[in-house]
C-alpha cells in the first residue's frame, strides 16, 4: 500500500500526505492516554485555496507546525503534526489556506468537532471531554461554535402564532422566557428574564411586518407578556392557558380554603391531619387518582366539608370553559360559573373569580384559537434535563443554543 493510499484510508487529509508515525504510551511525565502522532506534509503542486477570498493559489508563502487533535485510532488518541500552509494570495497577501477538514485556526479536525458536538447532544460536557481526552473548556467551545454555525439565525418568516412561558434558570427566583411556534413545536427565542424590557428583544427581532402577521399568542396570566404583545402585535389575540389558570386556582383557592378549614379544627388533631394531608388529592384530576383508597379518602373528605367540596367541584367545572368552540356558549357558561362562585360565600373563591373576570377576553379567545402551553410545559421539562446534565449553565448564550437544538420543530 502506498503512502497516498494509507493517507486516504486513515483520514483523507486532502492536500497533505503522511510523514513520520509514532506512538506515545501513557506515563508519569507523558499523556494520560495512549497517543498516536502522525506528521502531515503538504503535497507538492496541490492547488490551494485562500481562506480570505476563496481563490485558488499556486504559490506558498510559508508553512508552520501546528498540533491538531483528530478522531481516535483504535485504542489511542490521534494527534496530527500539520505543516500548515500559508498561501501567497495576490489579493489578500499571506493567508492560511482553506481546508475542508480543518478550520483556519482550529486545534481539532472538522470531523472530530462534529463527533464532539454529536456526543454533546446526549452526554454532559465532562463525559465527552474524558472520552476524547480534551479539556472541558475545549469541548464547550467546540460545541458552542458548532451549534452557532449549524443552527444559524432563527427563521421567523411564516410564523403566525406564538406561545410564551417562563422557566427557572437559577435558584433565587431567576427566570428566563421561551417563545415557541406552537404549530411545529419549534423554539424561536430564549432570553433571560420575564419583564417587558427583557422580552422586548424578541419582538424587535420579529420586526414590525412579521409582528402584524401574528394572530394569536398563548401565555399564562403574565401582565408583562400581555402588554408587550398588545404593543407590538396589533392583530394578535391573547389566549390564556388552562394549565396556568387551574394552577393559580389551586394556589389561591384550594390551598387557602384547605388551610383555613384545617385551622378551624385545630383542636381536633385527627380531623386537622386529614385536611392538611389532602392537598394533592384536591389538586389532582379525579381521573388521575388510581388507588381505590385515595378515591375513598377524597369522597369522605368532600362529604364531610362543604367548602372543600364546593371549591373542588368548581375547579373541575372551570376546566370545561376551555372546551367550548362557540364564544356565545362559552360566555353563558362563564356567567353561570361566576354566579355560583360569588354566591358560594367562600372569600378566596370570590376573590379569585373577581380577578379572573378581568382576564375573560383572553379566556374566550381560546374558542377561536384553541392554543395552550402544554407543549411549553413539555419543553420546560426537557430544559430541566438539559440543565441537570451540565449541572447548570453559566453561559446563557450556550444554554439557549442547546435549547434551540433540542427543539428544531416537527417536520423541519
From TrEMBL:
Transposase IS204/IS1001/IS1096/IS1165 helix-turn-helix domain mapped to chain residues: 97-146
Name the UniProt record assigns to this protein: ISL3 family transposase
Pfam families named in the record: DDE_Tnp_ISL3, HTH_Tnp_ISL3
Superkingdom of source: Bacteria
Domain Transposase IS204/IS1001/IS1096/IS1165 DDE residues, every copy: 162-403
InterPro entries hit by this protein: Transpos_ISL3, Transposase_DDE, Transposase_HTH
